[in-house]
């Protein structure tokens, strides 16, 4: 989750925000608020003391979850909301959007395209910026004429004399965090704001001319009510082809033959490997997709039976001499709990390369890595590899002698994967050997990973 200075900053922010709970609640409703927010109970003292005592018991690992629940369940002003969102969104390490790309993008936009549907446009702005910023508005019975909202309505909608660059400047978009700016662009080209596919595509094309200079782009990733949906992604993902014939759950080399070489249709002969041959959508392969495929191919009528037998089948493919891999697989599902159904499926023992010849037969042309411990096929074509490294990865003689050539080969394989669009995360086997230690490591790592790739917020 959060670390070091980040956790200290988030704790300070949440401490200031949760302090308001004492003013908003009676003693009875304060107890209910603790439960809703997932804060530890605190029954003694004044309301302020109860809040302080409860918050002090929240571990750093739960700060992110507390911030999310506060946003979901509590009424906060726009400035506080933005502070919490920025603290949460930065964890996803969004792509960097340089100042030059932001300004040149803004200069290229025709503001009249943005505001075709004024009420929808203003509602979109409200989700990201502080529009009601006039400190004197509370003392007046009439709407503020000095707030950012009033100025946007006057200069962009009623009497349009602002450029898009002027608008972005007034909003604070140029100085905003990368995650907020990215979400703002995605929302600006969304169907519920523009209500016109042609306008969506024209605006997206205009933005992309400048975003691509920073190796990012707004890419069509699906549909929303029949309109295209766009997400900001690194441009290298555009070159990642959709997976086909994902071969997994087998630690031994499968015997493959082409059923149709023209169509690249394959079949396995005398092998217990699994082949996911459905179209991989922009959502990647989620557990729900994998379970549906398994249920259909195995002709299982009961959902629970399909879930349990699939889990058992995948787990049985893990090598018996690697408790670390088993602990990673078990903890992934235990930590995500029921949410795992809509999360990326953790595919074990995935075959990356397949060659009918052996490494000895192929010689120097042999590919560096045949199989991955685990693969996650994430939304927008993102691919993540998880590896659990035992001593065999960097020693010989059963772990007695360091082997620099093995280590160099492993690093070369990682570089090759990254150049092909995969991100590799390695765990030392000792980190995961013990189930309790593995759970502690992965409880911090998995939410960070899923936020990093935009699976969760």
TrEMBL record:
Domain (AbiJ-NTD3) ranges: 96-263
Organism name: Streptomyces hiroshimensis
Pfam families, per the entry: AbiJ_NTD3 (PF18860)
InterPro entries: AbiJ-NTD3 (IPR041427)
The protein's name in its UniProt record: AbiJ-NTD3 domain-containing protein
Lineage: Bacteria, Bacillati, Actinomycetota, Actinomycetes, Kitasatosporales
